[in-house]
C-alpha cells in the first residue's frame, strides 16, 4: 500500500486537486482518500478505477506497476485478452464465480495487466464458495505485495 499511497498523493497534487475534490469525483469521501494517502486503507477495485480515471493515469500506474510516462495498454482484442488463462477461466463453468467475474472484466484486466503466472496463482488457491470479484482482486493485490 506504500506505493499506492505515494503515487496517489503525487498524482493528486500534480493534477491540482484537493483530497476532498478527488473524493467527490471518485465517489468516496475525503477521509478515505486521506487514509489511502497515508497507507492506512486500501480501496475497492471500483474506487481505484475511479481514482485512476479522475487522475488521468492507468490503474497499473496508480498501483506502481508502470510509470506515468509509459502507459502501455494493450487493446482488448489483442491475444492477451482473447486467449490464455483468462479465456480458459471465462469459459470453464467450474471456475469459481468471483474469478470468472474478474476474468470477464476486460477493463479491469487491461488496467491490472494480469500475467499468466498470476492467473495460475489465483486459480491454485482454493477459496470458500461465494468469494466475489472484489475478493479475487484483493487476493491479487496481496500476491503482488508478497512477490515484490
Tell me about this structure.
This protein is mostly helical and 148 residues long. The protein folds into two domains: 2-62, Orthogonal Bundle (434 Repressor (Amino-terminal Domain)), CATH 1.10.260; 79-136, no CATH class. Helices cover 64% and strands 0% of the residues. It has eleven helices and no strands. The protein has helices spanning 2-15, 19-26, 30-37, 45-54, 59-62, 79-82, 85-91, 97-104, 106-112, 116-124, 133-147. α2 (19-26) crosses α4 (45-54). The termini are close together.
Write the layout of secondary structure elements.
Layout: H1 2-15, H2 19-26, H3 30-37, H4 45-54, H5 59-62, H6 79-82, H7 85-91, H8 97-104, H9 106-112, H10 116-124, H11 133-147
- How large, in whole angstroms, is the Cα Rg? 16 Å
Q: How would you describe the shape?
A: elongated
Domain module tally: 2
Q: Based on DSSP secondary structure assignment, what is the total number of beta strands?
A: 0
The CATH superfamily name of the largest domain is lambda repressor-like DNA-binding domains
* Class based on secondary structure composition and strand pairing: mainly alpha
Along the chain, the helix and strand elements come as HHHHHHHHHHH
CA-to-CA gap between the ends? 12 Å
**Could you report the average pLDDT, rounded to the nearest whole number?**
82
Portion of residues in helices? 55-70%
Would you identify the regions where 5 or more consecutive residues have pLDDT less than 50?
69-82
Query: What's the CATH class label of the largest domain?
Result: Mainly Alpha
Q: Helical segment tally?
A: 11
Determine the strand fraction and express it as a percent band.
under 5%
